[in-house]
Amino acid sequence: MSIITIERKVLEKNDEIAAQNRALLARHGIFAFNLVSSPGSGKTSLLERTFDHFGGAVKAAVIEGDVQTDLDAQRVAKFNVPTVQIVTAGGCHLEANLVRDALKNLDLSSVKLLVIENVGNLVCPSNYDLGETMKVVVASTTEGDDKPLKYPAMFRNASVMIVNKIDLLPYINCNIRELRANALRINPALRIFETSCATGAGIPEWCAWIREQL
Amino acid sequence: MSIITIERKVLEKNDEIAAQNRALLARHGIFAFNLVSSPGSGKTSLLERTFDHFGGAVKAAVIEGDVQTDLDAQRVAKFNVPTVQIVTAGGCHLEANLVRDALKNLDLSSVKLLVIENVGNLVCPSNYDLGETMKVVVASTTEGDDKPLKYPAMFRNASVMIVNKIDLLPYINCNIRELRANALRINPALRIFETSCATGAGIPEWCAWIREQL
After folding, report:
1. pTM value?
2. Are B135 and B157 in contact (CB under 8 A)?
3. Is A122 in the B-facing interface, judged by CB distances under 8 Å?
4. pLDDT tens track for A113-168
């Protein structure tokens, strides 16, 4: 019982800091999404494609969350996007206080779009509000069409689902209609995009949607 | 600080129960592996292929761990393998006490091989000993070749890595030599198998290895 109480206190404290982050981002008119998925679903590839599409026309910044290494930050920084790396050193999700500290390293007055790339984990990050405008969940076709049913919290808490790696559909056993239906069963309000970071399919639609939010 | 202390207490308690599980399994001469991976890497498909290959010749049992649903247990049970489902209801990993309770529902005297399929999560399950003989980590080629570097704890704590979905290598950007090298950099003692649950490639070698362990 004591553990549950402490967990709740941790979450309450987290939510308090998340609210402060949210107010700070709102003051600067920044649209911020918390990008979540399993490991290897293509979060970083999606960011590469997105920044390549924008070609510097959107003032963006990235906070990268990783258990170890700054490999993802290196990939994103190539697009001349200010990037702050958080290494959780074993931690399975980002928390609001880590994002708060990362925000201090960005010049928010020159940012319109902030992407917080979370640790690759389809379970734990769903519980932690970071102060983002919304969560965007990436689901790779290669993970199968049952994932929204098996990991419902993440799909319930997200506002957008990106079905990535659609170029692989001919080679795998994944019914994309079933995947969409399963996701909408969990969260009927989910906005869905279908993309391939290998071919670029769906990237213009996704980027047009981001522009609408700015 | 208090949280760290409590975390440690939780882990100490977990390790105590895990040791009891391990002793119980040893008494029955059971080889048990804790099957871990990201969501959708193919853990359940690997079990289907494995039990299909054995065709009932190996006395097996399965404990299925899932955040929600018994979809995986239904798939495994089709092979007439005694299966106990643990639904963690949001929990991001199995713990030793859950496995202890599940073991009470199995007739251990008629089991030689026990598979504990963990929650799909490449971070949290690495910290929790369940009493298994060893951890087996599944890495899908579609997740990319950098995963051992980015999620090192799991690859360090595993004894075996199964590189799954090798049939998709012609269509994706994954260098399997690099994946193997990255994994061995983290854990030089790792035993590696390459499999495809779509084509059956590598399954005989993997099953032969299991037989050697029994």
Report:
1. 0.94
2. yes
3. yes
4. 999 999 999 999 999 999 999 999 999 999 999 999 999 999 999 999 999 999 99
Q: Which two structure tokens, joined as six digits, stand for A156? A: 């319930």
Query: CA neighbours within 13 Å on the CB side: how many for A172?
Result: 29
Q: Of A66, A146, A172, which has the smallest distance from its Cβ to B150's Cβ?
A: A66
Closest CA in chain A for residue B7: A3
Mean pLDDT of B6-35: 92
> Do A122 and A158 form a contact (C-beta atoms < 8 A)?
no
How many H helices and E strands in chain A?
A: 8, 7
Q: Is A65 on the interface with B (CB under 8 A)?
A: no
- Which residues in chain B are contacts of A171 at CB distance < 8 A? 167-168, 171
Determine the Cα–Cα distance for residues B145 and A46; give it in Å rounded to an integer.
17
Contact A142 B38 (CB under 8 A): no
CB-based contact A161:A209 (threshold 8 Å)? no
**B122 interfaces chain A, CB cutoff of 8 Å:** yes
Q: What are the start-end ranges of the H helices in A28-144?
A: 43-54, 71-77, 96-103
In angstroms, the Cα distances linking B182 to B39, B138, B164, B185 are 21, 14, 16, 5
* Interchain contact A7–B (C-beta under 8 A): no
H or E stretch at B53: helix B43-54
CB-based contact A150 B69, cutoff 8 Å = yes
Structural contact between residues A174 and B45, judged by C-beta atoms closer than 8 angstroms = no
Cβ neighbours of B12 in A, within 8 Å = none
Identify any residues that bridge with B160 across adjacent strands, giving them in sequence order: B136, B191
Interchain contact, A171 vs B168, CB within 8 Å: yes
B186/A78 Cα distance (integer angstroms): 27
Residues in chain B: 214
Residue A149 contacts B, CB cutoff 8 Å = yes
Q: Are A124 and B123 in contact (CB under 8 A)?
A: yes
Residue pair A49/A202 in contact by the 8 Å Cβ criterion: no
Report residue A83 as tokens.
């990037």
